[in-house]
Automatic annotation (TrEMBL):
<comment type="similarity">
    <text>Belongs to the DprA/Smf family.</text>
</comment>
<dbReference type="GO" id="GO:0009294">
    <property type="term" value="P:DNA-mediated transformation"/>
</dbReference>
<dbReference type="InterPro" id="IPR057666">
    <property type="entry name" value="DrpA_SLOG"/>
</dbReference>
<protein>
    <submittedName>
        <fullName>Rossmann fold nucleotide-binding protein Smf possibly involved in DNA uptake</fullName>
    </submittedName>
</protein>
<feature type="domain" description="Smf/DprA SLOG">
    <location>
        <begin position="79"/>
        <end position="285"/>
    </location>
</feature>
<dbReference type="Pfam" id="PF02481">
    <property type="entry name" value="DNA_processg_A"/>
</dbReference>
<dbReference type="InterPro" id="IPR003488">
    <property type="entry name" value="DprA"/>
</dbReference>
């Protein structure tokens, strides 16, 4: 079948149903192209769902309310996995999001980018490092982060302050502000940068959204800059995803006495690169440019 708008509406609806989700919906893509009619595709989906003990009620709900999902596609205009606008690097990762909801300057997705990640309990040294590296890299790279407290928000604030570009990847719908303290920053990024989320409007932040959000941050960028990562922290996990996906991971040094940097030094043993000047990142990413 060739009707991509209908394809998007059905897959968005299915993704929202219990038992399906993003990963299982990815498996349906090839069969959509092979199916002769929408009915034959949906019958096959029901059969596949039953094999995995997924109740058919969710699929029937999507069919019944297809006009609702079509309206979401029209009004919110998410970027779909099969569309040319979808970021090519993000397609390479395990379980890339089928949909990217956005607000702001969509053209930033086509520019080279670096992720800045680090502790929510940012120390003074880490704050100074954020400023130093954002200032040194903003001319060539879009600064990507997750708008969390600490290093995330500081890196995005510094990018805007110094007339750079930034993308904030959220763990909720674009109409939610989380954390609340970053509401003003989120509103500015929506106008001067880009907000990105795999969740449609009306989706509240939930604990399990943020590890999923982190794979998008890692997947969008050529490199990841780690500033003050604790052991087994979200920052450490995001950087590990980056290493597994073939991204360059750069670690800035910090105290060897405090446990606040244990994750940073563990990443060096995993294959990350130690850097202390922005120029070192330019040198390491030459092959990406």
């Amino acid at each position: 079948m060739q009707d991509m708008e209908e394809e998007k509406a059905i897959l968005l609806g299915l993704r929202e149903q219990k038992g399906w989700g993003n990963r299982r919906c990815h498996r349906l893509l090839d069969h959509w192209e092979e199916a002769e009619t929408k009915s034959s595709f949906l019958e096959w989906v029901i059969e596949e769902g039953e094999k995995e003990n997924i109740e058919r009620e969710g699929i029937e709900k999507v069919i019944k309310n297809l006009a609702f999902w079509q309206r979401i596609i029209i009004e919110e205009k998410p970027i779909y996995y099969r569309e040319e606008e979808y970021p090519s690097l993000l397609k390479e990762i395990y379980n890339p999001p089928l949909f990217l909801f956005w607000q702001g300057k969509i053209e930033l997705l086509q520019k080279p980018s670096l992720a800045f990640i680090g502790s929510r309990k940012m120390q003074k040294e880490a704050q100074q490092q954020v400023t130093q590296f954002v200032q040194g890299l903003k001319e060539e790279y879009v600064i990507v982060s997750g708008l969390a407290r600490g290093v995330d928000a500081e890196s995005q604030f510094q990018a805007l302050k110094h007339k750079g570009s930034t993308i904030a990847v959220l763990g909720n719908g674009l109409d939610y502000y989380y954390p609340k303290e970053n509401q003003a920053l989120q509103q500015i990024i929506a106008k001067k940068g880009l907000l990105l989320s795999e969740y449609r409007k009306g989706t509240a932040p939930k604990k399990y959204h943020f590890p999923a959000r982190n794979r998008i941050i890692a997947g969008l960028c050529q490199g990841i800059i780690v500033i003050q990562a604790g052991e087994k922290s979200g920052t450490f996990i995001t950087a590990k995803i980056g290493l597994e996906e073939g991204r360059e991971v750069f670690v800035l040094p910090g105290s060897t006495i405090e446990h606040a940097y244990d994750g940073s030094y563990s990443l060096l043993r995993e294959g990350a690169e130690l850097v202390w000047q922005p120029d070192q990142i330019y040198e390491s990413l030459t092959f990406w440019r």
